[in-house]
Amino acid sequence: MEIDSKQWRWIWDGVCFCRELLGVGGIMITAAALLGLSNYYNKHYYYYWADDADQGKGKRKRPVRVYMDGCFDLMHYGHANALRQAKSLGDVLVVGVVSDQEIVANKGLAPVLSMEERLTLVGGLKWVDQVIPNAPYEINETFMHTLFNEYKIDYIIHGDDPCLLPDGTDAYALAKKAGRYKQIKRTEGVSTTDILGRILSSLRGAEVEKGHADASICEQNHSGGNTQADSCGSIKSHLSHFLPTSRRIVQFSNGKGPGPNARVVYIDGVFDLFHAGHVEILRSAKQLGDFLLVGIHSDQTVSHHRGSHPIMHLHERSLSVLACRYVDEVIIGAPREVTQDMITTFNISVVVHGTVAEGSSCNGEVDPYATPKSMGIFQTIMSPKIITSASIARRIMDNHEAYKKRNLKKTASEYKYYAEKKFVSGD
Fold first, then answer.
1. Which residues contact 416 (CB under 8 A, 6 or more apart)?
2. 184 φ, ψ to 5°?
3. To 10 degrees, what angle do helices 389-398 and 205-223 make?
4. Considering its fold, how many domains does the chain have in total?
5. Taking the alpha carbons of 105, 106, 109, 112 in that order, is the dihedral positive or negative?
6. Are 263 and 349 in contact (CB under 8 A)?
7. 279 falls in which pLDDT band (50, 70, 90)?
8. Is there a single domain that holds both residue 49 and residue 94?
9. What is the structure's pLDDT at 208?
10. How confident is the model over 221-260, as pLDDT tens digits?
11. What integer pLDDT is reported at residue 212 of this predicted model?
12. Where residue 70 sits, what CATH number does that domain have?
């Protein structure tokens, strides 16, 4: 095979680029791979590598751009951790959100959340730099060409769980063949199948309807009729496989406190089944100050005031909130009542509450915001969305049989995974 000078530059720059990522041992492997692929990929993707070569010796390389896609339905901390890992493999993370049509074609069932809701959730994560809506489920040649040339993607990332098309082929086969694929570890203890199972096995449609009515009445007692509330006692949780560690919390945390003159904004809640409504209210709250502190009520507190446990337990909910780009710090297991001592301890400037609330008391108890109200630092803010955890659960129950059938197939593979589970290193 005869190689001209332009091809040699393409090959050599690829070797130099990968040396920084892989070390000396990676040079020979990369060089061999590039030599074998040069005839085909030089024609299709040459100018990406030329861009790097043209920067010249001694100049800073451009940021490494990585791409990861997914359905991101019923988004949870496992999704967030996957994107955190993907971001650690590069400098800029571009995320593709698979279209509703592609999900139906490949999974046989429409997502619970709309495209708009899924985009809000993905865009609200602190590790995400850019979002591509309506991405294809399969990394086909046309889309891979778009990623490499228009979005300047260096690597395509996916988890270590297989992603198969209806015909049984690998959705990432082309990316692997191109040598531009990297893999991350699956986050243990949670999956969309697991969450669907918790909802399906614990929630009855009649309970949701009753919860909506009861919660609206009880919240009006607290807010003078301005607040709609999530269901009281409509959601129960089942056993979770998640084992919280301090390391995972540190990975999700910003790791810094407020400055000496920062305006600290405090908002609290249950934050169950973290959804687009949560992202938007947190965005609104952050705009009122410099540092957003979020109180997350314990499972026991939620159970006492709603009559049942949340779907996601305290540490799961805490990670979902911590992953949000608008959140600076969380109080894990925050008290329901905002006290003077708490306001002083955290130097809180303003306490906010949305017009759509979840997990409100139904027992006519003392207003938990009485102290900040008496101090003149309480503020009600308009909730940008009327979504609640119970309304999302309601969507699932409205299509109960379809989701039940879907979960029967998926649950079998989940059981098999845990039965045959082996240790895998990674984050």
1. none
2. -120, 170
3. 160
4. 3
5. negative
6. yes
7. very high
8. no
9. 45
10. 343 333 343 433 334 444 566 778 899 999 999 989 999 9
11. 46
12. 3.40.50.620
- Cα Rg of the chain, angstroms: 24
Q: Which two tokens stand for residue 239?
A: 């056993």
The two tokens of residue 84 are: 């955190």
What is the tens place of the pLDDT at every residue in 89-145?
A: 999 999 999 999 999 999 889 999 999 999 999 999 999 999 999 999 999 999 999
DSSP 57: T
Q: Distance between CA atoms of 103 and 70, rounded to whole angstroms?
A: 10
3-state helix, strand, coil in the chain (%, to 5): 45, 15, 40
DSSP 409: H
User: 126 with 323: CB under 8 angstroms?
Assistant: yes
Reported as type and span, the H/E element at residue 412 is helix 400-419
- Alpha helices in 69-165, H assignment, sequence order: 77-88, 100-107, 115-123, 141-149
Strand-pairing partners, residue 295, are 268, 331
3-state secondary structure (DSSP) of residue 316 = helix
Report the C-alpha gap between 199 and 404 in whole angstroms: 10
Task: In whole angstroms, give the CA distance from residue 343 to residue 336.
Answer: 13
Same domain? 245 vs 371: yes
Closest-CA residue to 138 (of 164, 112, 108): 164
- Per DSSP, 191 falls in state -
The vertex-404 CA angle with 192 and 205, nearest 5°, equals: 95
Same domain? 71 vs 37? no
Task: Examine the domain organization and report whether 46 and 160 are in the same domain.
Answer: no
Proportion of the chain above pLDDT 90, given as a percent: 56
Task: State the average pLDDT over residues 148-159.
Answer: 97
Task: Determine the 3-state secondary structure of 78 from DSSP.
Answer: helix
240 and 334 housed in the same domain: yes
3-state secondary structure of 5: helix
* Alpha carbons 148 and 156: distance in angstroms, whole number: 10
